[in-house]
Here is the input.
Amino acid sequence: MTDVDKLAMGPREGITYPIHVQYCGNCNMPIEYCEYYPEYEKCKTWLEKNLPDEFDKMKVIDELEGAGNEEEKKRQKRGGKGIIKTKKKEDAPKRVCVSRAPRGKKKSVTVVTGLNTFDIDLKVAAKYFGTKFACGSSVTGDDEIVIQGDVKDDLFDIIPDKWPEIDEDFIEDLGDQKR
Here is the structure.
């Protein structure tokens, strides 16, 4: 009997239908997959609070697998990028730095750093700069936006207009820099 014939025969013995799947309230995935979610500890607290029976089962499984290396647990083993949150630097001064970097012989790009200290979404800012200057703009690194072309002088007027919490005094010109 092949696998296809087994599937065509109907329901399996010992399983009650319809199958009810319980989902985690934190990650919205089935409970079996919570351990692969980057914020597994939050899933555990949610399970302990809302589904104590399932939490006890997971606790027993964790104890059987062993504690293991803490650093290995934090690292994602397979799959996509996961959820990586950037850490805010509380001690960093609130300052937006604008500089120009050469790109090839006659071309240049404008580099904007420091918008993250004002809690501005860098992807939204990059999209805004790209549409405003009709050029390419992208987020590179933790707190850096690269705008194609030399638009450094225009940024001193546009940034305070778009984001009023950034005063002109907070914008610093770094001149020409190498990347």
